């Protein structure tokens, strides 16, 4: 009962305790799978593990889940929660690709995975030419492709058409044979899972069918490798004509079948701000998986998506939703249940994250009191047993000895957990099946997890006063597209902005407004041609600036691919050039959540997005900057790290410019009016807090901060949805 999915650098091994009774499910929106094991291993690890026993998932590599229970109720909305690098995306992949035995092949699963970072550069481009200068698809095009999933039939049409229209005489034949082989491989995967799941006579029959089909697949593979000289002319003619006929038939059927689906998709994509050019078709689904869907959406898109997901419950058969998001407000407003990955297991909670955290605190207090009471009772019983045994042996009193043994048995069998997992009274025959050394488990008090603590180094002394950075009447426009008769409208127009010591400046705006363009001009990364810019940019001569680019994760991923053995610790060691020793670097990385072997042994190419953000922050902080310019730094970070970063920035003596969602702007830039910290800072003249909105090339102050921006977005979403 094992499934395997191989990739270029790793393999996902999956096994579970499914039987033939789980093969057919009347409700494809539900999952109930016992004994789930998931391991991610390198190709070498998988090869080594094959000799240790057939179907053993977990022989080598990183174990994500061990003997877990995956239980999804139809129509429920689950938030999958745990820290960066815990294997959430691997679990989602296993569900989406139906690698888990027991997920019926008829189940329709749609997945929007974490968007490719390299395609996320939409904020820098003029709205009229969103693809200009990128050399590839934009994030919108990538999201549409992943979220709406072009059908297999359309891909087959494209493959056949390419073969038919090829100048190669054997092109149509090769395309047809490749298509047949791909279909057979999909069928083989289903038969293989079926054979593993069935037992008895049905299992024997399924295994015989699998063996026969494997022979057919091998013959198909041989045909795909057949040299052109061995193909008979009549075979070439017949298969070429078959490819032409099949392509024509599919081209006639596809448009009518997809027309209705495209109509429904346009409504959804319009709400997310997609133009007509980016719209493709969508499909209905039984299980909808969204892995960080808000990463590259602006506030307008987030609010719309939130309301759309909430509206799913009004459908006659709403899909079962699994959501991964570090935006706690978004998660709490959308999801009804939590699916928690912890200690290689899955646990469930009905409610939102704040309620779960409160319940965990209450549970710890309750268990602590229970253990303290039991420890006192056990100590008293142990002393009583000791006295009875001593007196019984001294006086040869068998009653005393029997009484002591009885109390010892009670001590062994009756102490421990007094309640079951559901909070009811513990019953041995119901709550602890099987043989155990003790009749009850010991009371285990949950340990407080080590939190993320970020310490920012003190900024350097500038020696003489003056603004750190200033823009004066800055106007910027991108060059016109090739062959265009007119220039595009300015991305930025007449911008004036000053950043002084201790300032807290937040910049909000929709995607495409030019926020990242403004930041790059502010820090000079890189300086644009003078023909595209008017106005001045001035920096303090002693300014030490650290700039977090929204492409930082992409750049680290590229370095990791170029040097497969490069680790976070090795990268920093090469950059500090002796300014910090290994212990200091480990301390810095550890404070950001990259402890121990994760920093020194795990290559960059295997780190999660959130872990790469932490690595980049370490690269910025060791330089002791006086100004931090952070462009979408929270995109991949979990809530705990975002909270730690917010707290660190709040008390730091340097200046901060944030282009980020409101989760960090609030508390760093947008303090509550009249707060004690804000009043003290104003009295001492230490800090200026300003929130700006960038729209239509203009920078304007939001007097009421983030609330004012969010209210405007709420109104726009209501209008989009026709409320």
UniProtKB/TrEMBL annotation:
Gene3D superfamilies, A to Z: P-loop containing nucleotide triphosphate hydrolases
Keyword ATP-binding assigned: yes
Domain ABC transporter as annotated: residue spans: 33-368, 469-704
Keywords for the protein's UniProt record, in alphabetical order: ATP-binding, Nucleotide-binding, Repeat
Database matches in CDD domains: ABCF_EF-3
Gene Ontology molecular-function annotations: ATP binding; ATP hydrolysis activity
InterPro entries tied to this protein: AAA+_ATPase, ABC_tran_Xtn, ABC_transporter-like_ATP-bd, ABCF, P-loop_NTPase
Coiled coil start-end: none
Region (Disordered): 389-413
Record's keyword annotation contains Acyltransferase: no
The protein's name in its UniProt record: ABC transporter domain-containing protein
């Amino acid at each position: 009962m094992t499934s395997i999915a191989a990739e270029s650098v790793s393999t996902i091994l999956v096994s579970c305790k499914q039987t033939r009774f789980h093969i057919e499910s009347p409700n494809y929106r539900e999952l109930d799978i016992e004994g789930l094991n998931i391991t991610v291993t390198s190709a070498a690890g998988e090869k080594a593990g094959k000799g240790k026993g057939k179907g053993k998932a977990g022989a080598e590599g990183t174990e994500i889940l061990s003997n877990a229970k995956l239980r999804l109720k139809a129509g429920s909305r689950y938030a999958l929660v745990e820290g960066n690098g815990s294997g959430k995306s691997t679990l989602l992949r296993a569900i989406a690709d139906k690698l888990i035995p027991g997920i019926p092949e008829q189940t329709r699963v749609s997945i929007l995975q974490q968007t490719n970072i390299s395609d996320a550069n939409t904020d820098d481009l003029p709205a009229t030419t969103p693809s200009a200068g990128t050399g590839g698809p934009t994030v919108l095009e990538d999201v549409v492709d992943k979220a709406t999933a072009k059908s297999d039939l359309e891909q087959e049409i494209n493959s056949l058409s390419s073969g038919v229209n090829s100048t190669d005489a054997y092109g149509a034949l090769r395309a047809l044979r490749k298509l047949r082989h791909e279909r057979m491989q999909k069928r083989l995967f289903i038969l293989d899972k079926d054979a593993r799941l069935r037992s008895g006579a049905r299992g024997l029959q399924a295994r015989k069918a699998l063996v026969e089909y494997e022979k057919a697949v091998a013959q198909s593979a041989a045909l795909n490798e057949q040299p052109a000289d061995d193909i008979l002319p009549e075979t070439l003619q017949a298969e070429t004509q078959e490819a032409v006929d099949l392509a024509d038939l599919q081209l006639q059927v596809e448009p009518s079948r997809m027309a209705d689906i495209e109509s429904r998709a346009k409504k959804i994509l319009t709400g997310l701000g997609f133009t007509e050019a980016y719209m493709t078709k969508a499909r209905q689904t039984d299980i909808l998986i969204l892995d960080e869907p808000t990463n590259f959406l602006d506030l307008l898109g987030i609010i719309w998506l939130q309301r759309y997901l909430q509206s799913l419950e009004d459908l006659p058969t709403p899909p079962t939703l699994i959501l991964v998001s570090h935006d706690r407000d978004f998660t709490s407003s959308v999801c009804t249940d939590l699916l928690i990955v912890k200690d290689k297991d899955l646990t469930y909670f009905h409610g939102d994250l704040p309620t779960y955290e409160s319940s965990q605190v209450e549970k710890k207090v309750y268990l602590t009191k229970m253990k303290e009471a039991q420890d006192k009772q056990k100590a008293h019983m142990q002393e009583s047993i000791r006295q009875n045994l001593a007196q019984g042996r001294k006086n040869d009193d068998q009653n005393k000895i029997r009484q002591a043994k009885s109390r010892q048995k009670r001590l062994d069998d009756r102490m421990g957990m007094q309640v079951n997992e559901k909070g009811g009274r513990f019953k041995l025959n119901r709550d602890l099946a099987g043989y155990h050394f003790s009749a009850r488990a010991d009371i285990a008090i949950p340990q407080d997890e080590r939190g993320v603590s970020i310490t920012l180094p003190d900024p350097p002394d500038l020696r003489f006063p003056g603004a750190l950075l200033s823009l004066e009447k800055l106007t910027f426009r991108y060059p016109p597209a090739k062959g265009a008769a007119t220039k595009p409208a300015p991305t930025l127009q007449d911008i004036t902005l000053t950043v002084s010591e201790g300032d807290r400046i937040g910049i909000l705006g929709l995607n495409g407004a030019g926020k990242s363009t403004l930041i790059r001009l502010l820090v000079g990364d890189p300086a644009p041609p003078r023909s595209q810019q008017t106005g001045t940019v001035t920096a303090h001569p002693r300014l030490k600036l650290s700039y977090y680019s929204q492409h930082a994760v992409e750049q680290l991923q590229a370095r990791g691919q170029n040097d497969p053995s490069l680790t976070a610790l090795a990268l920093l060691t090469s950059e500090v050039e002796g300014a910090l020793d290994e212990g200091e670097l480990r301390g810095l990385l550890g404070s950001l959540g990259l402890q121990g072997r994760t920093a020194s042994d795990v290559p960059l190419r295997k780190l999660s997005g959130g872990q790469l953000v932490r690595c980049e922050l370490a690269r910025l902080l060791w330089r002791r900057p006086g100004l931090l310019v952070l462009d979408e730094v929270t995109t991949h970070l979990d809530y705990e790290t975002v909270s730690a970063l917010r707290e660190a920035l709040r008390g730091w003596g340097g200046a901060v410019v944030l282009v980020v969602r409101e989760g960090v702007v609030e508390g760093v830039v947008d303090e509550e009016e009249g707060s004690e910290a804000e009043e003290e800072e104003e009295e001492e003249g230490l800090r200026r807090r300003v929130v700006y909105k960038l729209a239509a090339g203009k920078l304007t102050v939001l007097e009421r901060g983030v609330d004012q921006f969010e209210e405007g977005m709420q109104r726009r979403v209501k209008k989009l949805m026709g409320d």
